[in-house]
Automatic annotation (TrEMBL), chain A:
It holds the Pfam family ABC_tran. Belongs to the ABC transporter superfamily. Residues 4-236 form the ABC transporter domain. GO terms for molecular function: ATP binding; ATP hydrolysis activity. InterPro entries: AAA+_ATPase (IPR003593), ABC_transporter-like_ATP-bd (IPR003439), ABC_transporter-like_CS (IPR017871), Metal_Ion_Import_ABC (IPR050153), P-loop_NTPase (IPR027417). Keywords: ATP-binding, Nucleotide-binding, Transport. This is Manganese ABC transporter ATP-binding protein. The keyword ATP-binding applies. SUPFAM superfamilies: P-loop containing nucleoside triphosphate hydrolases. It comes from Lysinibacillus macroides.
TrEMBL record, chain B:
This is Iron ABC transporter. It comes from the Bacteria. The keyword Membrane applies. It is found in: Cell membrane. It comes from Lysinibacillus macroides. InterPro entries: ABC_BtuC-like, ABC_TroCD. It holds the Pfam family ABC-3.
UniProtKB/TrEMBL annotation, chain C:
InterPro entries: ABC_BtuC-like, ABC_TroCD. GO terms for cellular component: ATP-binding cassette (ABC) transporter complex. The chain crosses the membrane at residues 7-28, 34-54, 61-84, 90-110, 137-155, 182-208, 220-244, 250-269. Pfam families: ABC-3 (PF00950). Belongs to the ABC-3 integral membrane protein family. Keywords: Cell membrane, Membrane, Transmembrane, Transmembrane helix, Transport. The lineage of its organism: Bacteria, Bacillati, Bacillota, Bacilli, Bacillales. It is a multi-pass membrane protein. Signal peptide: none annotated. The keyword Membrane applies. This protein is probably a component of a manganese permease, a binding protein-dependent, ATP-driven transport system. This is Manganese transport system membrane protein MntC.
Length: 242, 289, 290
């Protein structure tokens, strides 16, 4: 059984097709990077997998089943700037949101839910900030809170949309250590990633994407100059010099 | 006694709208509420044309349907690529114009004039009484209590779901929260609130009370619970201040309450900025020494 | 049937529609459509206050009052958005209702004063296009023409300002001055129009023709022409229909004609729903085959 099996996935916004006939299968237990240039459709790919887009065709299976939100198998970490951090609440409350799916409608968080949330917050090194307003957290701290929320959900497969964008080095280290620990526990993790320098160090599996899936497999097989040239075209040349 | 009921009505409008306004501000839907407050006119006129009575129940139904229709049309236009502010503008002006036209065509001689809908006449509230369970209170007070109960029930039941769906709708959907249901349920409650309040205080004050107190409390609240409490307080305070100022100058009570909402906002905003500046200066001093 | 006065009114509402179609396009592209709505509502306290202070109901005086409070409301919205953590929608809604509430307060005072009863200020809420006097119309003509001419003069500067303000600043354009001129012109459009269609529906003239034109074209120049044309047509047709059947107020009919044009555009334009439906079906089919 695959962690993720995508067959002929296509997505169109208004006029243009953003993703065309994407096919990929990824076995369980990998920490996988999703890589591609800006506008290649990486976030769209994640959202289509999570069934968030109306105009899509194709087949997606997660752990052998069609995506079913209520099963809580999937822990999703959106881009940090996708939400309003001026929202009046504190860090612990955000992490508690990861337990909502387990509580069911109409129920309030139990003592155990609170304990799990506190543990999740501690595991990202944020236990001292539980009562802090989220607006007063730094970018890196906000990203950690988001990861803690996914951890509190206790999912089997995680999708993270650019978790390293605009965070400090310490946060990046904390996050990648946690993701590696999740992999050791046998969970599957997919990360939309930008920094080509760190791919080999962080990820054991790589998916190259530009409008469609160009290649996927173990990082050492896929993360090659030829494949990257194919994915990024001329843009890669510039990136190597930056 | 007359004064008492006018103030009670104002307080109830302030509290009911103050509660409903919190998620409105957090969901960035203030202008949708403004749109709904205009389009309930269309729903009420349609209810009158279809039933040929000015029955409160059917007006409530018509208004609620018009509110949902407004939210739905805005969503529809927005999702087909029209920018949201324009979508709101197109929908509410069209439906409002249709409402005004229908009144002149079919309901010219009944008590359904547009100025009344917009500005209400809170001073007349005590004259229209209803008895229920042996208690006689003004009709407006009954309606507002009813809607207040609906709103509070909705929030008690779905507080955590609304919070998550508001803060992070994509994550909410990924764990299976019914975000579409919540959206339309919330829009329905806004429509109910509008229609219950507009009969006494007019559409404009409803919107002022929906947006103003919640926006004011948003400035100073650290948690949503705080925001609810401050919002109700500001709403109630604006109602009382507005009433007495209107009495003092012998002018429109609803208009003065809206003005009081604005005054409270300005006071809180400037006060907050002054405190912030003082704190910053203090921190600066500490750093130097 | 086309009496002399009707012809005057027709050309007045047509010019108004054209002017609003043009300035509305600029405010639409700046995503400020609803600011126009707030500014229109905010004209009410200005009108009432001008009457209270001067005791006169000469149109230029009332228009001046309307312009001042209307511009003040735009300034308030910008100030709240930049000064507090409130978002634009809340700032617009707050300013709109508070200004309108204050307007009602003043208007009630006017109506209770002995001369106020006959002042007819209430007609500014819904407009009274059909019964406008020649003197009123003369003012309308003048300001509509000024609006159109000034818009054409500033066309290329505003275009740059909207699409790339950073670049515009870089090549030395006086950004703040250009923005202020645009705001003044939008306020002027509103003030010109409220007498005919009223403060509540004025924003419709700024928004609907532009939103319809946007469905047909991506080019600013064609958008302006189309929007002006739709505004003008709505003005003429609306006035004409309400003149045929007396008792119908002009403002709502003009808005409904514009809404009708929008509705049709929404379905049949190149980006419209009918085309999109076929495109979607084709997309699904391709997906099934591939």
């Amino acid at each position: 059984m695959y962690a993720l099996a995508v067959e002929n996935l296509s997505v169109a916004y208004d006029k243009k097709t953003v993703l065309e006939n994407a096919c990929v299968t990824v076995p369980q237990g990998h920490l996988a990077a999703i890589i591609g240039p800006n506008g290649a459709g990486k976030s769209t790919f994640l959202k289509a997998i999570l069934n968030q887009l109306p105009n899509k065709v194709g087949k997606v299976e997660i752990l052998g089943k069609a995506f079913e939100p209520k099963s809580l198998v999937v822990g999703y970490v959106p881009q940090r700037n996708a939400v309003d951090w001026g929202f009046p609440t504190n860090a612990l409350d955000i992490v508690l949101m990861g337990r909502y799916g387990h509580m069911g409608l109409l129920k309030r968080p139990s003592k155990q839910d609170k304990l799990i949330a506190q543990q999740a917050l501690a595991s990202v090194g944020m236990q001292d900030f539980a009562e802090r307003s989220i607006g007063q957290l730094s970018g890196g701290q906000q990203q950690r809170v988001f990861l803690a929320r996914a951890l509190a959900q206790n999912a089997d497969i995680y999708f993270l949309d650019e978790p390293f964008a605009g965070v400090d080095a310490a946060t990046e280290k904390t996050i990648i250590d946690i993701l590696k620990a999740l992999k050791v526990q046998g969970k599957s993790i997919f990360v939309v990633h930008h920094d080509l320098q760190t791919v080999k160090e962080y990820f054991d599996y790589t998916i190259l994407l530009n409008k469609t899936i160009l290649a996927s497999g173990a990082t050492e097989d896929v993360f090659t100059p030829e494949q990257l040239q194919k994915t990024y075209g001329g843009k890669l040349f510039m990136m190597q010099h930056v | 006694m007359i004064e008492f009921w006018v103030i009670v009505t104002g307080l109830l409008v302030g509290i009911t709208c103050g509660i409903a306004g919190v998620f409105l501000i957090l969901r960035k839907m203030a202008m949708i509420a403004d749109a709904i407050s205009h389009t309930v006119l269309f729903g009420i006129v349609m209810a009158y044309i279809l039933t040929q009575t000015l029955n409160g129940f059917w007006m409530l139904v018509g208004a609620a349907l018009a509110g949902i229709l407004t939210a739905y049309l805005v969503q529809l236009l927005h999702s087909s690529g029209i920018q949201e502010d324009a979508a709101i503008g197109v929908v509410f002006t069209s439906l409002f114009a249709a409402g005004v036209l229908l009144i002149t065509l079919f309901a010219g001689n009944v008590h359904l004039d547009v100025e009344h809908v917009l500005m209400g006449e809170i001073a007349f509230v005590p004259w229209n009484q209803w008895s229920l369970l042996g208690i006689t209170m003004p009709k407006a007070v009954w309606m507002l209590l009813f809607v207040l109960i609906i709103n509070v029930t909705f929030l008690v039941l779905f507080f955590k779901e609304m919070k998550l769906a508001t803060f992070d709708p994509v994550y909410a959907a990924s764990i299976g929260l019914p975000i579409v249901f919540l959206h339309y349920a919330f829009m329905t409650s806004i429509s109910f609130t509008t229609v219950a309040a507009f009969d006494s205080v007019g559409a404009i004050l409803v919107v002022a009370m929906l947006i103003g107190p919640a926006a004011t409390s948003y400035l100073i609240s650290k948690t949503i619970k705080q925001m609810f409490i401050y919002s109700m307080l500001f709403g109630a305070l604006a109602a009382v201040i507005g009433y007495y100022l209107a009495k003092l100058w012998d002018t429109s009570i609803a208009g003065m309450m809206a003005a009081a909402v604005g005054m409270l906002f300005m006071i809180v905003l400037i006060g907050q900025k002054l405190i912030e500046r003082k704190r910053k200066a203090h921190m600066h001093k500490l750093e130097i020494t | 049937m086309l009496s002399g006065n009707l012809l005057w009114v027709l050309s007045g509402t047509m010019l108004l529609g054209i002017a609003a179609g043009i300035t509305g396009t600029f405010s639409f592209l700046q995503k400020q459509s609803l600011v126009g709505d707030a500014a229109a509502h905010a004209a009410l306290p200005g009108i009432a206050l001008a009457f209270l202070l001067t005791g006169q109901k000469e149109l230029p005086i009332l228009m001046l009052g309307a312009g001042i409070t209307s511009a003040l409301s735009v300034y308030c919205i910008q100030w709240i958005v930049s000064f507090s953590k409130l978002k634009a929608d809340a700032a617009i809604g707050l300013v709109l209702t508070v200004f309108f509430g204050v307007g009602i307060v003043f208007l009630t005072v006017v109506n209770r004063s002995p001369l106020g009863n006959q002042s007819g200020l209430n007609s500014f809420i819904f407009g009274k296009a059909a019964t406008m006097t020649k003197a009123d119309l003369l003012w309308l003509f003048m300001s509509a023409i000024i609006i159109i001419v000034v818009s054409l003069l500033f066309y290329k500067e505003w275009k740059l300002l909207i699409f790339d303000p950073v670049y515009a600043k870089g090549i030395g354009l006086p950004i703040e001055m250009l923005k202020a001129t645009l705001t003044v012109l939008i306020v002027m459009t509103i003030v010109t129009g409220i007498q005919a269609v009223g403060v509540i529906l004025m924003s419709a003239l700024l928004i609907i023709p532009t939103a319809s034109a946007r469905l047909w074209t991506n080019k600013l120049s064609s958008m302006l022409i189309l929007s002006a044309a739709i505004g003008g047509i709505a003005g003429i047709a609306g006035t004409f229909i309400s003149a045929i059947r007396t008792g119908l107020s002009t403002g709502p009919i003009i808005v409904l004609v514009a809404a009708g044009i929008f509705f049709i555009s929404y379905f049949i334009s190149p980006t419209g729903q009918i085309r999109q439906y076929y495109r979607k079906r084709q997309f699904r089919k391709q997906g099934d085959v591939g």
